[in-house]
What we know:
This protein is of the alpha+beta class. It is globular. It has helices at 5-11, 20-23, 70-84, 86-99, 113-125, 132-140; strands spanning 26-32, 35-42, 45-48, 109-112, 143-144. It has one domain. 41% of the residues lie in helices and 17% in strands. α4 packs across α5. A five-stranded antiparallel beta sheet has the order 3-2-1-4-5.
Amino acid sequence: xxxxxxxxxxxxxxxxxxxxxxxxxxxxxxxxxxxxxxxxxxxxxxxxxxxxxxxxxxxxxxxxxxxxxxxxxxxxxxxxxxxxxxxxxxxxxxxxxxxxxxxxxxxxxxxxxxxxxxxxxxxxxxxxxxxxxxxxxxxxxxxxxxxxxxx
Length: 151
C-alpha cells in the first residue's frame, strides 16, 4: 500500500543537524551550450552532484532548476539525499522541488548545504500552506553567480 506524503513525513521524527564539515558544503548551478550542470563544493574539492538516479530516475536529460518539471525533481532529490540522507530525502524531495528548486534563478546560482538543510527541516516541521514566507527567506540567501560582489 502506498503511503501519503504526510504519513511519510510523520515517520521522520527529525532531520539530524549538519556536521560543521557538511554545513560548509556549497552547491552551484551553471548553464552552458552543453546543458545544465550542478556541482558540489567541499573545500577545494569540486565534484558533479550525484543525481541519485539509483533511487529514482525522473529526468533523462539530467538536473534542472527554475521551474517544476522532471529535471528539477531530480535536482531536488539529489540535494535532499545529499543533505538529509536517503530516507528523509526521498520523503521530502517533491516538496523541496516546489519550495526551493523551482525558484532558483534560471541562470547561475550558489547555495549552501546549510540553507538546503534549513529548507528540508522547515518542510518536515511545517505543512505546505505555512511554507511560503520561509521559502522567500531561504531563496533570498541563494546568490545568483555574477551578481554584484560575487563575480
